[in-house]
């Protein structure tokens, strides 16, 4: 992977939703992932994917998944249709890329090691199975989040990874724009396997303010405002825990000066599936 023959990749923040999105093929979010996958394969054409999911947090530093062949998947959810537990995803790893990520992050003064046992969680394989159902020889490497780290830490991780974009590597942060499951359970229709009903006021407020930060600010101000979210009036309602928010900080750090564009938006109850592409225009 060299920058001489490869154009700079965009990077993304996607709201991966729940596992049932895989089965609800007529839902708007399933259709979005299909369309997004078409863009990745036909327009972006990455040489590899690096993905940071809300569902892999580590305490003792950052971990990088390192697999020679196919990476296993984890069914890290419960109480759903048996069909979900029969699903497979055949994504291969890249030891070379994993080692390179470790080197990059070490040079940026992060505590980082490889992990050779943990498979892809549903924040990785569920959206990618819809978007890229047959990844073939396209390597996919997952990088963990450091639990309880600051918002600035996650932005700096993204900045360190940004150089990979010049080598054909697509960087994806996978979380949710708003993620309050507790407040949303009452809006889940099991017969349709989807959430439906009203949008809670804090969801509307948080999405509105995130739109201003992401789409109306320059890159420097965008990062500053994302760090200041720690003091946002409805943060603890929109994100009782920040695991689904900080993949956005990583993606924003990797974006550098590139502007952001909303590529999907769906709100219900205490959830928002807002998704963003960061890419230089022109």
Distance between the termini: 24 Å
CATH-wise, what's the superfamily? LigB-like
| Radius of gyration, CA atoms, in whole angstroms | 18 Å
Helix-strand sequence: EHEEHHEHEHEEHEEHHHHEEEE
Would you tell me the overall average pLDDT?
Answer: 94
The percentage helix is 25-40%
Indicate the proportion of strand residues.
15-25%
Strand ordering within the main sheet: 5-2-6-1-13-10
How would you sum up the global shape? globular
Question: How would you characterize this protein structure?
Answer:
- Helix 1 crosses helix 4 and helix 5 crosses helix 10.
- The chain is built from ten helices and 13 strands.
- It has one domain: 3-Layer(aba) Sandwich (Protocatechuate 4,5-dioxygenase, Chain B).
- The chain is 35% helix and 20% strand.
- It is globular, with a radius of gyration of 18 Å.
- The chain has a six-stranded mixed beta sheet, sandwiched between helices.
- The protein has 282 residues and is α/β, with parallel strands linked by helices.
- Strand 8 and strand 9 form a beta hairpin.
- Keywords: Metal-binding, Oxidoreductase, Zinc.
- This is 20162_t:CDS:1.
- Belongs to the DODA-type extradiol aromatic ring-opening dioxygenase family.
- Pfam families: LigB.
- GO terms for molecular function: ferrous iron binding; oxidoreductase activity, acting on single donors with incorporation of molecular oxygen, incorporation of two atoms of oxygen; zinc ion binding.
């Amino acid at each position: 992977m060299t920058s001489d023959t490869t154009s700079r990749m965009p990077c993304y923040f996607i709201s991966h939703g729940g596992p049932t999105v895989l089965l609800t093929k007529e839902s708007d979010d399933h259709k979005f992932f299909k369309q997004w996958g078409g863009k990745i394969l036909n327009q972006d054409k990455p040489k590899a994917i690096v993905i940071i999911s809300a569902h892999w947090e580590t305490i003792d530093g950052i971990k990088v998944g390192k697999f020679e062949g196919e990476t296993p998947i984890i069914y890290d959810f419960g109480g759903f249709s048996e069909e979900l537990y029969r699903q497979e995803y055949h994504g291969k790893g890249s030891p070379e890329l994993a080692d390179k990520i470790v080197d990059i992050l070490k040079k940026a003064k992060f505590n980082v090691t490889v992990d050779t046992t943990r498979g892809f969680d549903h924040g990785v394989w569920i959206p990618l199975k819809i978007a890229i159902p047959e990844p073939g020889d396209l390597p996919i490497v997952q990088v963990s989040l450091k639990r309880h780290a600051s918002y600035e830490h996650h932005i700096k991780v993204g900045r360190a990874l940004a150089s990979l974009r010049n080598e054909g590597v697509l960087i994806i942060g996978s979380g949710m724009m708003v993620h309050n499951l507790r407040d949303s359970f009452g809006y889940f229709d099991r017969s349709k396997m989807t959430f439906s009903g009203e949008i809670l006021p804090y969801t509307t407020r948080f999405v509105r303010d995130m739109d201003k930060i992401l789409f109306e600010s320059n890159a420097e101000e965008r990062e500053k405002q994302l760090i200041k979210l720690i003091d946002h009036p409805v943060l603890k309602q929109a994100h009782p825990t920040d695991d689904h928010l900080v993949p956005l900080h990583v993606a924003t750090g990797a974006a550098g000066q590139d502007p952001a564009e909303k590529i999907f938006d769906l709100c219900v109850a205490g959830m928002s599936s807002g998704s963003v592409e960061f890419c230089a225009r022109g």
